Amino acid sequence: MAAPDRNEFRQTVGLLPTGVTVVSAFQASGPAGATASAVCSLSLEPMMMLVCLDLGSRSLEAVREAGRFGISVLGESQRAAAEMFATKSPQEEKWASVGWRERLGVPIIEGSLARVVCELAEVIPGGDHVIVTGEVLEVEAEDEPGEPLIYHGGLFRRLDAGEG
Ligand SMILES: Cc1cc2nc3c(=O)[nH]c(=O)nc-3n(C[C@H](O)[C@H](O)[C@H](O)COP(=O)(O)O)c2cc1C
């Protein structure tokens, strides 16, 4: 097989469906956040999460600065937030577009299905990204979490309502 080009790689790995989150942290100028789908649970004992962030992400700087970060899991009605937090708009603009509050020194998005607040553990190199790991300080889920927002094949999607 020939070595894949960048587009082929993106398209191929984009076939793996993911949830959509906003990874967030406070910096001196206020809250910062980015849409992120490269997020997963890492360890149960201790409870840890991992997030892969672009070296060019302004939110990565905020995470390093704060030493803490939040993960807000977006619901299907929060597509506009997913799109906004994927831009390089000023952070004030991003945060003015959503309801948010502070939890343990981390900004989190209201109406998200679940929130996880982490203490920064390690920042591990990974090509043009880094793997950020964090120890879980707090988890919070809506009593009746609605349907999640899904990203697949370069598009935001909803889960099929059918079961089984
Ligand atoms: C669905 C989706 C998933 C994304 N996942 C990631 C991700 O896991 N890590 C990342 O660094 N950027 C990811 N991005 C891109 C960032 O959201 C984007 O680069 C953003 O502008 C970064 O903002 P910041 O510089 O304010 O941190 C994703 C974008 C979209 C639309």
Structure description:
This protein has helices at residues 6-13, 58-66, 79-85, 91-96; strands spanning 18-19, 21-27, 30-36, 39-43, 48-54, 68-73, 100-103, 106-109, 114-126, 129-141, 149-152, 155-158. By secondary structure, it is an alpha+beta fold. It has a single domain, classed as Pnp Oxidase, Chain A. The strands form 3 sheets. The protein has a 7-stranded antiparallel sheet with strand order 3-2-6-9-10-5-4. A 3-stranded antiparallel sheet has the order 1-11-12, with no helix packed on it. The chain has a two-stranded antiparallel ribbon with strand order 7-8. A hairpin with a 2-residue loop joins strand 7 (100-103) and strand 8 (106-109). The model has no long low-confidence stretch (mean pLDDT 96). It binds flavin mononucleotide (FMN). The site of flavin mononucleotide (FMN) has 17 residues, from strand 3, strand 5 and helix 2.
Strand-pairing-aware structural class? alpha+beta
CATH architecture descriptor name: Roll
Q: Count all strands and give the number.
A: 12
The count of domains is 1
Q: What's the rounded overall pLDDT mean?
A: 96
Short summary:
The chain is of the alpha+beta class. The protein contains four helices and twelve strands, in the order αβββββαβααββββββ. Strands 3-2-6-9-10-5-4 form a seven-stranded antiparallel sheet.
